[in-house]
Amino acid sequence: MDPLHSSIHPADEIKIAVRNLNFYYGSQKALENINLDMPSHQVTAFIGPSGCGKSTFLRCLNRMNETILDTRVEGTILLDGEDIYAPEVDVVDVRRRVGMVFQKSNPFPKTVFENVAYGLHINGMRDKRQIAWMVERSLIDAALWDEVKDRLHESAMGLSGGQQQRLCIARALAIKPEVILMDEPASALDPLATKKIEDLIQELKKEYAIIIVTHNMQQAARISDITAFFYLGRLIEVDETRLLFTKPKLRQTEEYITGRFG
Amino acid sequence: MKPRAITEKIGFTSLIVASLVVVLILFGILANIFYNGASVLSLEFLTQPPRNGMTAGGILPAIVGTFLVSLITIVFAVPLGMFSAIYLNEYAHQGKLVRLIRLSIRNLSGVPSVVYGLFGVALFVRLFHFGASILSSGMTLGLLTLPWTITASEEALKTVPKSFRDGALALGATKWQAIRTNVLPYAIPGMLTGAILGLARAAGETAPILFTGAAFSIPSLPQSLFDQFMALPYHLYILATQHQDIQKVRPIAYGTALVLIALILCLNVVAIAIRYRYRKKARMAQ
Fold first, then answer.
1. What number is the ipTM of this complex?
2. Which chain A positions have a beta carbon within 8 Å of B162's beta carbon?
3. What is the pLDDT of residues B143-162, one digit of tens each?
4. Which of the residues in chain B have pLDDT under 70?
5. Is residue A108 part of a domain?
6. Which of A75, A199, B71, B272 falls 20 to 30 Å from B56 in CA-CA distance?
7. What is B41-284's CATH number, 1.10.3720.10, 2.130.10.10, 3.30.160.250, 3.20.20.20?
8. Is the pTM higher than 0.80?
């Protein structure tokens, strides 16, 4: 393995380990030979210019790319040591364990309560009191409870953009995932709403492995523990965030983080 | 006036005139039917069977017949159309085969209705031994509405954003769970609208029911779905062209036409109402 990509964490903390991953849209190779370890209780950020493959890679981690026609994965992604692409693995289980928050907040046109309860319902929870408790818990954990507790049964579409995105986070938390993937979760939000999401991420990493794609390098520097730089479908460099942003080992990385291209 | 302004004026005027002509024709037909048919309209006309060789009495059996046939059409075509659309839009691999199926469905809507009638005879009346009956006619009309139902259902499914599906899938929903709980609720009004518009067309058809179960005259109401029946469009056809005393039954023919048009108008109003409510909801979801 390339020494730049070697593990920088003790083995027992690694939540997701990616080995020799290739990804194709049709015949076009979008990701080439990615090797990366992502630990629990830390925030891993993916940075890189548009089209570098960072979002594609994120969507490999919960097999969401399978909803896109004519895509193909090679290599292995180990979640707690088990390959999520193994034939006997049910994709539904993978997605329950690896939650996702999308770039464009996508609350369902239901009430606030129903949005958070949705994942509980489809996972077979029927006990109303338990559902109510889980919904409250998730909204508190997503730092949204105080703002919505009096309008739980109003449409989620009436919330502000930042509230909607935190609602989507609450919705993901409700089914108790182990990992939370975030695809540029704050890219459509104003600075204040962004700050709330970033603070929330700091809270959430105590319980979950957080993996976030961001366009914003300052954001990566502020909130992540580990940063991985992608370019043209390859993982160029990965390191502890403070090291990557102060002493990048490769010229390409340095040029990108200093804004000379991308 | 400048030449450009004149061209503009001419273009605008011809557009208005064309629209007005269309509206006038429609209202002309409606006014004509209403003027000639309103005189026979009465409670008796709607609740009595025809008497004296159709020169007196009402059209109740035709109303009941058309109603029952429409019911069969809906029960048969709506689930079939919806499920086909769900399969084509959500599950099928979008390759050449699906494109061919879709093309065939679109083309089916151009098949003359008399061809559907003959097909209905071969399939339902003969092969399935339903005989000439309400069931055979209803299912034949069901086939006729399928292209509408399927196409409208697919369009309705396409209006549901991918983010609803992805959001549900990312929460660990199975594909069917995502469709059932997070796609269908938003697509069903659109699907129903298409089905009702298809039905509105089918309810006025004569050719498909002509061979498959509609009868010249049955004064009693049908007792089962395997009975023959009278239907409004066929009754109108008979009164207008086949009766031995056409002059005498003309008002009744107009009255029948009026009832048929009113019925179809009602169906369209229902479709519009559903679509209106759906649009409002869809706007809320933006």
1. 0.88
2. 67
3. 999 999 999 999 999 999 99
4. 281-286
5. yes
6. B71
7. 1.10.3720.10
8. yes
pLDDT digits (tens, 9 = 90+) for A212-232: 999 889 999 999 999 999 999
Question: How many Cα atoms within 13 Å fall on the side-chain side of residue A38?
Answer: 28
Say if the Cβ atoms of A96 and B172 lie within 8 Å: yes
Q: Which of A64, A104, A123 sits opposite B170 (nearest CB)?
A: A64
Residue contact B94–A119, C-beta within 8 A: no
Q: What's the CATH number where A129 sits?
A: 3.40.50.300
In a domain, A90, yes or no: yes
Distance from CA of A100 to the nearest CA of B (A): 6
pLDDT confidence of residue A91: 94
Contact B170 A102 (CB under 8 A): yes
Q: Where are the domains of chain B?
A: 3-39, 41-284
- What's the confidence (pLDDT) of residue A1? 41
Minimal Cβ distance to A157: which of B170, B172, B284: B284
